[in-house]
Amino acid sequence: MSADRAVATSTDARRVVRLIHAAAPLPEDCGAAALGSKAWNLARMAALGLPVPPAFVLGTGWCAEPGALDEAAWRPALAELERLSGLRLGDTRHPLLLSVRSGAPVSMPGMMETLLDIGLTETTLPGLLRVSGHPRLAWDAFRRLIAGYGEVVAGIDARHFDADLDAVRGGCDACDERALDFAALRALAARHLDTYRREAGEAFPQDAHEQLRQAIAAVFASWHADKARTYRAMHGLAEDMGTAVTVQRMVFGNAGGLSGAGVGFTRDPSSGEPRPWVDFLFNAQGEDVVSGRRSAYGHDELAAVAPAVWQALLDATARLERAFGDMQDFEFTVQQGVLHLLQTRTGKRTPRAAARIALDLFDEGVIDAETARARTATLDARVLAEHRIANADGVALVPLGHAASAASGVACGEIVFDEARARARRAAGAKLILVRQDAETRDLAALELAEGLLTRRGARTSHAAVVARQLGKVCLVGCEALRLDEAERTLEIGGHILREGELLTLDGNEGAIHAGAAAVVEIVPQDLLVRLDALHGRGVGVLQS
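Given the sequence above, the corresponding structure tokens read:
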């Protein structure tokens, strides 16, 4: 595809509806500017023969005026999606369930909305039960839909649905909701329906097509959300770029057995090492991993329990890396032992990782020397320097606790719990460590002001962690020993209580948390500098200056 065609600017040229499936060729008349990078990459994956669920995409041109998008424009695409799936939206015996996702021409991780399980109603739920033979899946999907739709479409505060969940699991915050059986999830769905009616002033919509119409409108509207605007301002992205909306057949990582969801990178985004870096949860949906509200774990269990699935994932992502010419950040779902790829994009990485990845891809023949030089042109000793904690008198510091490292380096600063405090202390010249329950993108503005982020829950591959790494912030997530008391403005780790304003050090290299301000040393990666000098045809040591 030519660059000219990839950068269409006319709104009319971007008002497109396109199908994505294995037999569909890449669109000849539009590219990422019209379809959004997510859908364009899905189309490229499908064209490679990779396992991508069928979908249709509503182009970015509709975002400026979604009211101009007549349902008649996408009804034929929905009919084709139904044909390809062998299911029908709203059908009581063989219901089609859909995900509705955003996707701008430039990746904006977690800044806009996603809705899952669209099409599930009290009349289609028995059909899902018959088709799947899995009561827990049906009720889990229904309760997820009510809560997600209520939050995104009806504007209901998520805390109301969280309270329902706490009531069903007996107030045990640490209890994994994946352990709830179908009877508990059925009771939870009933609570959610009552909560929706009370907070929205009307009943949850039981028409599958109405759900889809409202979901599409809500995802387009999320382009104007505060966090999306903040992200665009931070990165100099055009307001009129708009988002596309992708409507895709659901696949279920919460179907029990060999089912689950994961997010990963084809290489380590912190160090650049050529090894997969994957978070995965059995019996979960993708939003569980990327939302930042759940802790996830590495791929070891997936590789051990389902080695064939793991090998299929490795093979698929190796193909992705060669086809796209760069390290990839990908999302996937496993449904009853079958792999489905849901997204790929160029992965965010640290400067050190950027150097290592470009050099290795050049050595492997994936990219040429010119591309490698372009990707490393701004990297020098100052940018590549690693910061590590210095041991006092040769004695290693004893940390308060540990967490999963989503971004390497060392950060030290005053503890803050929210944006207001962060703004006040930053204005006073203080360096800050943001401490939160969850790794959520709604904290973007506060994160921008801080040196690092520490959370009780969340995965290394959550959207907030990805953004933290992109911003150069140290990020530790999923610290199970962390207890926050926001009313008292304190935190507790390992029996130590610290107050807001006290100093905390995050060691992203070791995943360690230290009280106070630790001494830091700077280490220059000489091996990378030598390789960069050779790539750019410079004398050894030129990048030291």
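Residues 182-200 form the longest helix (19 residues). Try to locate this feature in the token string yourself.
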